[in-house]
Amino acid sequence: VRIFVIGAGQVGSTIVEALHDEHDLTVVDVDASRLTALAYRYDVMTVQGDGTSRRTLQEAGLDSAGLLIACTARDEANLIAAMFARMVAPDIRTIVRTSNVEYLDVWRERQLDVDFIVSSELETAHAVSRTIGLPAARQTDVFADGQVQIVEFDVEADHGRPDVIGPPLKDATIPTDSKVAAIIRGGEMRLPRGSERIEVGDRIVVIGSPEAAREWSRIIGPEDRRVRDVAIFGAGSMGMAIADLLLEQGIGVRIIEKYPETAQAAAEKFPGARVYNATGLDSEFLERERIDRSQAAVLSMRDDAKNHYAATLAKVHGVQTTIAIVHEAASREVFEHGQIDVAIDPRSITAEEIVRFARDPRTQQVVMLEGDRFEILDIKVRPDSEFVGKPFRELPMTGSLIGAIIRDGRPVFPHGDDTLQPEDRAIIFTESSRVAEVERDL
Amino acid sequence: VIAARRLGPRAGAARLAIDVRGSLHVVGVLIKYLSLAFAYPVAIAVGYGESPWPFVAAGAIAAAGGLALQLATKGGRVGVREGFLVICLVWLLAPAVGALPYLFSGDAQLTSPIDAYFESMSGFSTTSSSVVTDVEELSHSMAMWRQFSVWVGGAGIIVLALAVLPRLRVGGRQMLEVEMPGPETDLRATIRDTARRFLVLYVLISIAMITTLTVVAWTGLDDRMSFYEAVAHTFTTLGTGGFSTRVESVGAFGAVSQWVIAFFLLVAGTNYALMYLSLVRRRPHQFARDEEFRLYAGVIALASAILFVELIRQNLASGEEALRHAIFQTVSIITTTGFASTDFNEWTVLAAVTLVALMFSGPCAGSTGGSVKIVRHLIVGRILRRDLMQTVHPELVVPIRLNGVRVDERTLRAVVVFVLLYVGCFALGALLLLVDAARTGLELSAFDAIAAAATTLGNCGPGFGFAGPIGSFDPFSGASKGLMIVLMWLGRLEIIPVAVLLTRSYWRG
């Protein structure tokens, strides 16, 4: 399919990275330097120009495209690009990125002529909420309406049950209905063969049922880390979306906001939350309000440096888990080396969500791990695939692994004797470079 | 010299920031229309073969005086600012005009001007404190005029409470603002639109009550009730000013009539805007959701329970009678009506304290009742709770809500200021009554002085001691009566408009 990507920022680049192998991409951006950088790395066509200009789109050959992804940082520009695309090519499918939850509501009421809309705020809020559900996890994602969970854990010293951490995998008591999909040690991925061990300092990726994911959380992290109360620093649109979702799930929420008007608006919107007009960088305040009664702190202020500082302060005052929203790509690394347990990048989450929709129609969902080095695919098995009917233990161990299959809507966590059936949906952990290969083989 | 003279008055007018001329014009028009109210007692007098002349004369004076004032002050512009002056003047002048028939009638109980003015102010402010010692001595037409003045006053208060005071932002009234059609350019037009809707409701409820009581009378459920009494008591129930044609007040009627009156009292103390929404616009769930109405119902339930237990415990009444008196007296006092189903002066101290406490409660805002009003208590309670929370958590942001909607800080301040002024006026009033009683050698206990100040400022009516429900305010000195006239006037206008008139910045730019 020929795909137009409007906007070559972080979201645009991530999308290009994920899709350039299989599709014919045209990237439009006003900033020539961004386009040069992209064209240098990937085999894509670039057009320097305004994505909201109908003529630019037409001249770039939009009429022959099958999909338009409008993912600039400006909501209105994205919507206008999608509208013009509909005019130029009536059969085109359109995906729009927005930071405004209201547009999402309008779209759900079918008032917006767009095929798919992704709200960074909402996707981020869901990511935060999933992380809070599994406090030891670094990143989590769900498949098949939540029946299968993919969780990334850091194995720390002090905690960790010895019957799982240490012995070879074939001897370890792995929770039922789960599978270790990968072990990442020193930036290198190791396939989890039976002789492989999980060691302290590893990062592991686990695929399993929600119960198994919780069991893993208990194996890796300390006991009783259930989160009942969350402190949210910053009541911007991101903080508000997170507070909304957590309150909906019955989790107690405290909001700390520096600006009086913003704090007042938050207090008005959420009668169930406690809102403080304070900076959150004030040690005396955090002590007085017993910030440690919140098991988790979400740092969603606009300034990454402040988030980093506040997270460290929160840790000092006894908060167990800190989750920070990343605004600059570079911050992620800083966060992960500092006192931040989970760093959530709204742009990569948005890109993921868009890629899921843009992929091969057989592929339903994609998660990117470790930046975008690994992906998790949810792919339907073709009846004529050479792997159909083969027991799992005979499948080749290359760079990919089937973590679960969805058969007739129900998840199956396969053992060595199980076989792959046509029409199964396989949830596959793979290196990003092998995505095309996996899609071809299945 | 001529030029200077011409400029003189204009320069004076320019320095005065208030259009007094325009205000007087409005007052003149309103007094002129008030003269129409005298048609009703004239008809009663003719019907009962009594002299209609006191009413005809009073009506003629009102019409001529109002017209003269209107013509003499032609032109001028009335805005929000002039509104304060207009309502203060109207609520002083209307009772004065209403007092004329009492003077003209030559009835021995109301011959002194201060007594006549007291009685009339008590009626128009829907207070029902009375200097009359034996109501049954009054002629039919005079007794009915007393009742009718309460109903007219009630209609005025509906306009005042729902249309005028919210726009003048008095005592946090702005939160009650029902609908504001158009910009605030002409105060008269916007008030007319809002007021009309609620006055229709007022009349409809009045008709419903007259019908119910008449049915009670004609079906023989209560042989002491009659059509005349039904009309007379409907006027004072809906106006929440409990004048009665009987010395024993509502105690003169049977149990069924008392229950009917209690029900309509409850209705009269409800916010008309809320009733309009739930009944006319057919959104009955609004009642259950309205926080003020819920607290109103709660306070009534609590106070009735206290009185009921007390009546039973002290063997003052039993069974249905105890329940009826407990509920009736609670709604009568909380709505600041002041009917008595029995002489509660004879009840215990706990019962008396409960009733005086209810005088400070008042019914829902947007009703014809007086006093502080439930919603202000609700707001003050929430301000209190917020301040206590913020003592422990200084950074906590706590928006104060009413029915889920945030109340802005200005409104909150206005509510607190009103309550403080109210308590101040009450305390000063009680003190002055005691001082004056000492001066004239009147035997007045501290509790009775407190009750008298609370009942007049709260536009409730009866007090305790000699001023109890079947007693009279007649023993008070002329000075004390004058003070209580001021208290009734202040309470009715919710103090702030009067206080505003006393500030220099109101009159100057």
Summarize the structure.
The complex is a heterodimer of chains A (442) and B (509). Chain A is of the alpha/beta class and 442 residues long.
Percent helix among the residues of chain A?
25-40%
From the alpha carbons, calculate the radius of gyration of chain B and give it in angstroms. Answer: 23 Å
Our measurement of the CA-to-CA distance between the termini of chain B, rounded to an integer number of angstroms, reads 27 Å
Structural class of chain A: alpha/beta
Number-wise, the strands of chain A total 22
Description:
The complex is a heterodimer of chains A (442) and B (509). In chain A, strand 13 (252-257), helix 9 (260-269) and strand 14 form a beta-alpha-beta unit. Chain A is of the alpha/beta class and 442 residues long. In chain A, the strands form four sheets. In chain A, strands 3-2-1-4-5-6 form a six-stranded parallel beta sheet, sandwiched between helices. In chain A, strands 14-13-12-15-16-17 form a six-stranded parallel beta sheet, sandwiched between helices. Chain A has a five-stranded antiparallel beta sheet with strand order 7-8-11-9-10. Helices cover 32% and strands 27% of the residues of chain A. With 509 residues, chain B is mainly α. In chain B, 66% of the residues lie in helices and 1% in strands. Chain B contains 21 helices and three strands. Chain B has helices at residues 2-15, 20-34, 39-47, 53-72, 80-105, 113-124, 140-168, 187-218, 227-238, 255-268, 272-280, 285-289, 291-313, 319-334, 349-361, 374-392, 409-440, 446-457, 478-492, 496-501, 504-507, and strands at residues 396-397, 401-402, 405-406. A two-stranded antiparallel sheet of chain B has the order 2-3. In chain B, strand 2 (401-402) and strand 3 (405-406) form a beta hairpin. In chain B, helix 6 packs parallel to helix 19, helix 10 packs parallel to helix 14 and helix 17 (409-440) crosses helix 18. Chains A and B meet through helix 9 and strand 14 of A and strand 1 of B.
